[in-house]
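Why do we care about 3D structure at all? Because function follows from shape, and shape follows, mostly, from sequence. That is the central idea of this module. The next example makes it concrete: a single protein chain, its amino acid sequence, and then its structure expressed as tokens.
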Amino acid sequence: MRSLSFRRAAPARLAGERGAVAVMVALLFVPLLGCGAIAVDVASLYADREQLQTAADAAAIAVALDCAGGACGNTTATATTALIANAGAADTAGATLRTPSVSISGQTVTVTVSADQSHWFAPVLGVDSTRVTATSTARWTATSKAVAQLPLALSWCEYKQQVAQYPLTSTTPHRLSWVTGWLGLCTGPDGNLFLGGGHALTDTDSAGVCRTTSSVGDSIGISPVSNWQPSRCTKAHLDGLIGTDVQIPVYDDVTGWLLSGLRAHVYGYALFHLTGYTLTTGEPVFYGYFTRGVQESGAPSSTTTAPYLGAGSVHLTTQG
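And the structure:
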């Protein structure tokens, strides 16, 4: 009988609990809905923040490239153009882009971009919009590590003679005629004399490639003998370099013996815009002009402080 009495009472008891749950759900519905709405708006803010960071990186790189090229120009306009190009979609999603802030110190530029993001649900809680901000810093430096696609190097004196005749601002192609003889003495940038003031061929990375990889401060093998090796630097290879800026090591000292074992100390890198060439006995004749240019890199090519001889690089710095 006890068990029967208990079972009869269960339905009424459960009905009471169901009513309590309904009341609790009703009471919690509004805050739960509010939390869900806020979560949607917060997720949107994170997405906007990521997009703005990409835009800030692009803006910093754009300004740094201009500055490294010799003229910073209108930095705000440059940053704004890059911002719109990389975060323009944010404006259609309810975010209003603001004018970026640009700060330059030495060879470093910092760009801060921001946007006011309108919310979909947060206005119910009195929050109509939130300002999203992103900052990026880029630095430009002289190239301190390079891959020369021609096994060619210039002495400091030869480089000075070349840019004296044809400044880096000139874009008129000419035949690359050597001015300084190999047996001439050259006074390096440090004031010391060294023998070998002309130009030289460099040892390549391996027997099967036409390139020489080096860094500022390296000692690379060179030869003053005009002995071009077509098996390494073929016509197809040279044709592929036409219209490009070729990096050329500039050396400020030579050590070793004249007939073998000569080493050149890499001081910096020049850029030669190759417009054509003629294959002759010995080394080819090159046409073009010395210039200045900057390449974007993912990270500094070296911690070495290199002199600017026309070749530079731009990279983003780590945010503190």
